[in-house]
Design a protein that fits this description.
This protein is 41% helix and 19% strand. It has a seven-stranded antiparallel sheet, with helices on one face. It folds into three domains: 126 residues, Rossmann fold; 71 residues, no CATH class; 144 residues, SH3 type barrels (Roll), CATH 2.30.30. Helix 2 packs parallel to helix 3 and helix 5 packs antiparallel against helix 6. A hairpin with an 8-residue loop joins strand 10 and strand 11. The protein has 371 residues and is an alpha/beta fold. About 1% of the residues have low confidence. It has twelve helices and twelve strands. The longest helix is centred in the middle third of the chain and has 23 residues.
Length: 371
Amino acid sequence: MGWRILIVEDKQETAEQIKSDAQSGKLLPDVGKMEALVISEFKEAVTYLDSGRFDFLVLDLKQDDIEDGDAEPGLTVFQEIKKTRFVPVIFYTALPQYVKDLETSFVKVVEKTEGLMGLRREIKSIYESKLPSLAKHLEKEQSKYMWDFIGDHWQQVETSFQHTDVAYLLARRLAHVLKQSSIRSFLNKNGVATPGVQEVKKIHPMEMYIYPILAEELFAGHIIKHSFNGVDSHWLILTPSCDFEQGHVENVLLAKCSKLTSFDEYKDFQKQQDGDEKGNLKGLIKGRRRGKQSERYKFLPGTFFMPDLIVDFQDLVHIPKDELDAKQAIATLDTPYVESFITSFARYYGRLGTPDLDVNTVLSRIESDLT
């Protein structure tokens, strides 16, 4: 499956330069020669994207017959594309000020005075994010499954009821492709070293979360940011999800999540990063804080959307559900981590302490029986 690029540019000389660069392999040497298609009319761009697959879109903002300073044509194309499909976009324009605020890891802006060197730089940047490769990977898996499996077994699907099973099969297949182990394998094959490829029991921090949240309602495992007693803090919802679904929740149980940097173990490690200090910090992160009750603390690894946090199952509050809003949720724990946290909480509060057995008495009896 080759790489394709769509160029929306009404200046023929500029368009041909980009096309030649792509076809010769210079535009993105990592993938080599690309198939390039040039469109001079903005209104045709969405039609071509609807009818064909492209890995990159180079998009100007206006045509020669549009009044100077008007970026509406290119922006209209961009907004229409967002409604229908995903494709990385590189705005190649003399009007960068109109789209600078749109830049992300897959939307880039190149001022035309930068020329082909600027285009090469930003396309390479998008490619190195692995998003285009992942999109191709998913499309390839879908195509392979439909032709190799569904095509060969279609005669076995005889009733209209069974026909709907195909959609479920495909959805489950794609879900499997998106499993953590499959993504790690994909990234490893594409030259990105990730935790868990060599050691399957270890995960990348991002694998614990769903971000942004999928539901517009509160559920167990949501990590929210809420002001309590005038202080903004992170909190983990511990109320079971089934209670939310059945409308039985009047008050929501929350466990406070404090920043890792606020704990003595982190502060000591900051001063001396070896010996006991390192061991104590590891213990806190693993939920085995020295001198403290087992399972009282759980670690939430930091990401770009939240800092490293420690959940304290002793620092709890009940807040009326009406005072909380799902919009406060910044992320949610994914399965099976949400179940693990809830189970740990139940074990921590359900534990029963008993006096220690006098082991010496038992050993004395055993020794006596042996003589």
